[in-house]
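Students often ask why inverse folding is considered easier than folding. One informal answer: many sequences map to the same fold, so there is more than one right answer. In these notes we will look at a single instance of the problem. The structure comes first.
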């Protein structure tokens, strides 16, 4: 029997006598290598996909924080009780956000799209919602919660407002 490479024929007995084996990969070795490389590539691609899907989260959290701070600043600048008297623990009849005049009026904000104080929505922030709760008293505990529609961002800011 002869082993043929290129154009030269070498007898198999001569290869065995010289302790030389044909070189290369067998089909089994090639398939195993392919499976190992595919498994490694799949793992790397899954990590990459997860990282890129979360790349916008820091920006969403920063926007949620800014919205919450804006609402909290607006609330804490108001009077503790209704300056006209007759505090009801919420918005008095006929009051809207542009006419809120005390901390307790803001307790009625629930699931609102972020808006300016005059009630005009801020178009770029339509994917957020704002909830405000005012409890206790005195001091009143004001909690502003901002969530994003993706449900990956839920920012809560808590402060107290004393009656002084």
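Output (designed amino acids):
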């Amino acid at each position: 029997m002869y082993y043929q490479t290129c154009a030269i024929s070498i007898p198999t007995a001569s290869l065995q006598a010289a302790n030389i084996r044909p070189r290369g990969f067998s089909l089994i070795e090639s398939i195993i290598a392919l499976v190992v490389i595919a498994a490694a590539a799949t793992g790397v691609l899954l990590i990459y996909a997860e990282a890129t899907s979360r790349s916008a989260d820091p920006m969403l959290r920063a926007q949620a924080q800014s919205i919450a701070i804006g609402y909290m600043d607006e609330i804490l600048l108001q009077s503790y009780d209704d300056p006209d008297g007759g505090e009801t623990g919420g918005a008095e009849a006929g009051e809207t956000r542009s006419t809120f005049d005390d901390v307790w009026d803001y307790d009625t904000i629930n699931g609102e799209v972020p808006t300016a104080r005059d009630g005009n929505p801020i178009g770029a922030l339509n994917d957020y919602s704002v909830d405000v709760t005012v409890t206790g008293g005195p001091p009143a505990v004001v909690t502003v919660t901002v969530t994003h529609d993706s449900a990956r961002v839920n920012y809560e800011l808590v402060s107290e407002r004393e009656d002084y």
